[in-house]
Write a structure and sequence with these properties.
Blueprint: H1 2-18, E1 55-56, E2 61-68, E3 77-81, E4 85-94, E5 99-109, E6 114-123, E7 136-146, E8 153-160, E9 163-171
Parallel strand pairs: 6-8
Antiparallel strand pairs: 1-2, 2-7, 3-4, 4-7, 5-6, 8-9
């Protein structure tokens, strides 16, 4: 009777004990140590609430979208025009719980000096992932830096559950 208990214990313990011994050495030096301890330029922080979504750089313009918890006016946006910076705070409406706000496009027309910012609600669910079937309000903030470019008008377009439409058009 004790022999079965011992054998069943070995059946569980032996594979666990050998699990680290059968794999290949990790990349790095021949002794198995990894010499790259510094964070590379392509590594990104893992906290999504603080991570900029995307950077778009057409010419001398760079833009970063940061998701926000606050979403006071679903489907609306506000624009703040600075000397060489533009800030857009808004809220797109997603059709399910797997939607996230994404910066789809930033375009600047040099002749009319109009800046167009397009923010979309994008479904990021996997094939077998279940999502809540309810509308979700997705707050965002887009910071746009325009080095040497001073737009005189800003148009914000939302592409979400309500379709693609201009939600704000501001002129200096």
């Amino acid at each position: 009777m004790h022999r079965r208990t011992v054998l069943s214990g070995l059946a569980v313990a032996l594979p666990l004990a050998l699990a680290g011994c059968t794999g290949a050495a990790p990349p790095g030096d021949s002794d198995g140590t990894n010499t790259t301890d510094e964070q590379s330029e392509t590594d990104a922080p893992t906290n999504e609430t603080e991570t900029p979504d995307e950077t778009v750089t057409p010419g001398r313009i760079s833009a970063n979208l940061v998701p926000r918890e606050e979403c006071p006016n679903p489907g609306a946006a506000t624009v703040s025009l600075g000397d060489e910076a533009v800030s857009v705070v808004g809220c797109v409406v997603g059709n399910n719980g797997c939607n996230v706000p994404r910066l789809q496009e930033v375009d600047y027309d040099t002749e009319s000096r109009e800046l167009v910012v397009v923010v979309a609600a994008v479904d990021e669910s996997g094939e077998d992932e279940a999502c809540t079937e309810a509308l979700v309000n997705l707050g965002y903030e887009v910071e746009i830096e325009a080095d040497g470019i001073e737009p005189i008008s800003v148009r914000v377009v939302h592409d979400d559950v309500d379709g693609r439409r201009t939600v704000v058009d501001v002129t200096r």
